Amino acid sequence: MEIPVSGFMYHSDDSDPQHSHQLFITSWDGRPVPAHVHEYRGVTSFDAGHNHRYAGITEPAPSGVPHTHRYFTFTSVDDQHQHEIRGVTGPAIPLPNGGHYHEFSGVTTINGMNPHRHNYSGNTSL
């Protein structure tokens, strides 16, 4: 019996020759399988006379087990430049009524006519 399955794979950043890749199934037997992701958004710290807004969706991660999510986005263009934001969320923080969220924080890339960076932090959506 054949069951059609589709999905995608993330390349591992691991340099170990015995590394593996993460496989995420997006459909099983023609039915969609929702990916476990979170939205995130916020405003960076105020540095060099301005701040930036940012928003994105985390990379998928397994549900129901301890996990983190990788994230990547660009900030808004302010003061004629933007910054890159990337990192890994903290572990899942369970909520009393079910579900969870993740905390994230970091520092942007260095950009701008007056080279600088911004701090950022927040919580993902549930």
From TrEMBL:
In terms of superkingdom, the source organism counts as Bacteria
Question: Record's Pfam families?
Answer: YmaF
InterPro entries per the record?
YmaF
Q: What is this protein called?
A: YmaF family protein
* Annotated source species: Psychrobacillus vulpis
